[in-house]
Every structure is written in structure tokens, then in C-alpha cells.
Amino acid sequence: MGKLHIIDHPMITHKLTIMRKTETGSKDFRELLNEISMFMGYEITRDFPLEEVEIETPVSKMTAKMISGKKVAIVPILRAGLGMVDGLQTLVPVAKVGHIGLYRDPETHLPVEYYCKLPFDIEERTVIVVDPMLATGGSASDAITLLKNKGVKSIRLMCLVGAPEGAEKVMADHPDVDIYIAAMDEKLNEHKYIVPGLGDAGDRLFGTK
Predict the structure, then answer these.
(1) Which pLDDT score is estimated for 106?
(2) Does residue 137 have a pLDDT over 80?
(3) Burial class (CB in 10 A: 0-12, 13-18, 19+), 149
(4) Given a cut of 80, is residue 164 above it in pLDDT?
(5) Global pTM?
(6) b/e burial code for range 59-76 (CB count within 10 A of at least 16 → b)
(7) Are 159 and 134 in contact (CB under 8 A)?
(8) Is the pLDDT of residue 112 over 90?
């Protein structure tokens, strides 16, 4: 069964607070999201299996441990999810990157797919879906469904800020998927934005507000 993990390390919380501030510009917002994504990556990869290997240090030979060739893919939900890729790739530089394009219909607030490009062996990989905001949960749930339809068996969802409504939807639709977030906020407002949240992550990342 999947679990909800709140990664509220003091350094993550501190950086997230700066990101939330209205006066934080795109450059700082991008850099902070990149840093937080890398820090969160330590937790999301915590259970990756290790194998013993023989190495030689400057002093002697020894048996040491390395990650045992686990295949990973990072799949951002466009466009805001792009801001979380570099931080994870710093930790797992051999990870392949796919892209899923979803936008929220302004009338229905439901996600609409417009793009999907994934590694050819996606079904063999542990897939980390990334999107800064887990609001209604619609986009995340649809992206996970799309990946399952492609044969993916191991999926983790990593978000920056969540609302209870979004977390509940993803857990109800996909009880086998672990969710990792840095903060669980209060609620959604009438426009389906997270309160207090940090505004539109895509606009703040790319300076399009």
C-alpha cells in the first residue's frame, strides 16, 4: 500500500518559506525549487537496494556497497514539473527523463492531456512523477494512470506543496503509489488553488505571471 510522506526537514521548510513569499523572483524561485527537489530526492531514494562490490582504496581492498543498478525515470508534469528535474538528476544522473503535458481546463478544472514522450523501456523503470503543486490531484492521478497503461509497475509521486483534497484523490485512485511532499497546506479555494500555497508555480518559475 502507498503512503503519504511529509518531508519537513528544517532546511526544506526554510527554503519553501522563501519560495512562498510574493517578493521572491523567478531566479530565486527556480534555484530554491531545484535545491528542495535534490533534498527530497534523498528520501524518495532511501529504499533503493544496495549490492556489495569489491573496490580498492589507497590503503587496501574492501567490500563496499553501491546502488544495485536500479533503473529510474523522472517524469515531470509540464510545465511546472520541469523545475524539479535537475535536482533529482543531480542525485541520479543516469535517470531517463520523460514528459507528460497536462493543463487544467479553466471551466471544469479537469486535466487535459496534450503531450506524452517517455523512455522506450519505461515499463522496466521506477518512475518518479514530479509536479510542484498537488492541488485537486487530477493531473497527478491522470499522469499515473497514463503510466500504468504503459506498463509501469513502480511509481512514486513527488510534489512540493499539497492540499488534503489532492492527496486524498491520488491515494483513492492509486493506493499503491507513495506520495512525497514537503508541506501539506490547509485547503483549496474556490478557484482550486492551494491555500496558503505559493501561487501558480509555473508562472513563478518561468516569469509568465
Answers:
(1) 78
(2) yes
(3) exposed
(4) yes
(5) 0.90
(6) eeeeeeeeeeebebbbbb
(7) yes
(8) no
Q: Which residues are known catalytic residues? A: 104, 108, 200, 203
List, for residues 65-88, the tens digit of each pLDDT value.
988 777 999 999 998 999 999 999
Output the pLDDT for position 191.
Answer: 87
Residue 69 neighbours by CB under 8 Å, 6+ apart: 51
